[in-house]
Each structure stands twice: as structure tokens, then as C-alpha cells.
Amino acid sequence: MDEAVAIRLCITHRDPVGFEFLVNKYRREALFHARSLLGNAEDAADACQECFTRAFIAMPRLDKMDAFYPWFYRILRNYCLNVLSRRKTATKYRVETQRAGGVNVDTATPLFLLEKTEEQKLVWETLEQLPPDSREILVMKYIQGLKYEEISQMLAIPRGTVMSRLYYARKAFHDKFTTNETSERSKGHVRL
Questions:
Q1: Which ranges of the chain would DSSP assign to H, the alpha helix?
Q2: 18-48 pLDDT, tens digit each
Q3: Which of 96, 111, 126 corresponds to the end of one domain?
Q4: Are 19 and 62 in contact (CB under 8 A)?
Q5: Are 4 and 37 found together in one domain?
Q6: Domain range holding 180?
């Protein structure tokens, strides 16, 4: 079975075998994208599960589809951005609650990041500090190695917009990374 056959089976017959083929083909890529947006593996797995379910339900309503993943990625991306928005609102609420009532609520969320070296850890920490759209485009280009055209298709934006967003995302990353690196060095000097 190939992707075109699987898509046709899902659209015309809501075939679970065709959809299983698509899930198996794109599961790792989806998990990687969700993790890059959400910051941890557990939330990413939950997001993928929910979005694959939504995609399975929505596919029979489509007339046709040329490629599954760009369409699916938009579902996944929107879901992850909604999760991030809810997190931000919940954090603001906790902070306001702490200020108003003196309630001691731990607002820190654990990060399950790849930590093979200190520099890699610093890179991921810096990515976490960027807005989701900057983090997303940097991960697509420099960690996944996607070409401008592939990013353009997945985000449904023109190639020039991809280039522009990458420029500003790289600049924001550089500024934050330099600040974080300086901070880490000063911490190291304090310990000595």
C-alpha cells in the first residue's frame, strides 16, 4: 500500500487499515513536531493521539487530498498552539492567585529535553524561551533539515514568508542564546 491508496481508502470508506498505514508512516515525525512545540514527550504523545483521532474523523468529509502530512500537520500545530495558550492562561491565573491570596502554587513545568551535552541543553532551553512560531520554524529548518519549499507547504505560507520568519527567528535565538550562555558562564564562575 502507498500513501495515495491509503488516503483514498480513508476518504471513501473510512478504512482503518489505510489510516493505520498513515499513522505508522508519520507517527515519529508528528511526535517530533509536537514535542518541539510543547516541550515534553508526554504532552506530545497526548497531542498526537488526539490529532490522529481528529484526522480520522475528518478525512471522510474531504473531497480529495494530495498529501496527508501537510494537512495533518495543520491540525497538530493548531492543537499544540491551543494547548500552549491554555498553559499560559493557567500560569497567569496561578500567579494572580498567588499574589491575591498568598497561595503557594508551584508554577514550574518540568522539561523533558534532550540533554546529551551542556550546550545542547542550553540550545533546547533557549528554544523553549522563543515564541512557538519561531521555535517551530527553527526546529523544522535546522533540526529536521527541511527545505524552504517543504516548510512552506507544511505551514501553508509563501516561501518568502518562510525566509523572513527564519531570519527573525534566528536573530531572536541568537540574542537569547548569547544571554543564556553569558548567564551560565557567570554561574560557573560563582561556583569556583
A1: 3-13, 16-38, 41-58, 68-101, 118-129, 132-138, 148-155, 159-191
A2: 999 999 999 999 999 999 889 888 999 999 9
A3: 111
A4: no
A5: yes
A6: 113-192
